[in-house]
Amino acid sequence: MNIAFIGLGTMGKPMSMNLHKAGFSLIVYNRNRERAAEFEALNSVKIAASPAEAAAQADIVITMLTDDAAVEQVYLGDNGILSACQSDSKPRIVMDCSTIYPVTSQMLAEKLAALGVDMLDAPVTGSEPQAIDGVLTFIVGGKREAYETCIPLFDAMGKKAVYMGASGAGANAKLANNMLVAANLTALAESLALVQKSGGDPQLFLEVLAGGGGRSGMAEMKGPKILGRDFSAQFMTQLMFKDLKLAGRLAESLQVPVPMQASVQQIFQIACNSGWGAEDMSAIAKCYEAWTSTTIGERNERV
Prior knowledge:
Strand content: 5-15%
Strand order of the largest sheet: 3-2-1-4-5-6
Number of strands: 9
Low-confidence stretches: none
Structural class: alpha/beta
Distance between the termini: 63 Å
Helix content: 40-55%
Shape: elongated
Largest sheet: 6 strands, parallel
Mean pLDDT: 95
Number of helices: 14
């Protein structure tokens, strides 16, 4: 099975590497060719000059891109994936793992279906460490038959794949997931700031959370980053802000009230406006530090 992987960024590069390690023949493409340099010396990996060239040589195409604009360019632009699908030599399935607006995903699925190609929307939960370790969870929408064909790929890149339903179902669920992730992270930062300002020990507070109903993936993964002042990006603040805006747009289209999402989006907006957009999303803790004149994790003299 020949796999084309398009988009070798923070997530795409380790995902495609895990496919290579699992023995799949790869054709890779990235707009910035320097990101593909690591693949040049690998056996069974080809580097394509365009998305169309990559797709024309593949049975299955996987894309992992930043946003709707990037996805539309790769699919619909000159030498894009759809242009390759108009020939006799075309992929059977295209899988987009990007986090984009569900309507965009459904639009692309319709265009591909007209050319005889199935599309899965298969965004992932997890960030760079999970992509490197191959323990992502895929949230999948599209035809079940296409999903089942791709199970070996999901197994190579992740620990679980959940089939959610028809086209767009994966994208819908991913936005709901990220809305919850961002709310959890914001609540964590708010609670840590309260403990810090009251003279408590945030490190001990994380131990409290680990043993009770307040425990969460954000406390486990982002708590140590906040206390250690490590805001190196695993998932950038500006990308979560983008996802929150998409979630709000989806909620508005469905007339679902999401007051918590609106508040959390504002905090991520403030963090981006403060110059922390390219830092890890845990950098929203800096908002609370600014508002409380404290540094979370700094030793308190109070008892």
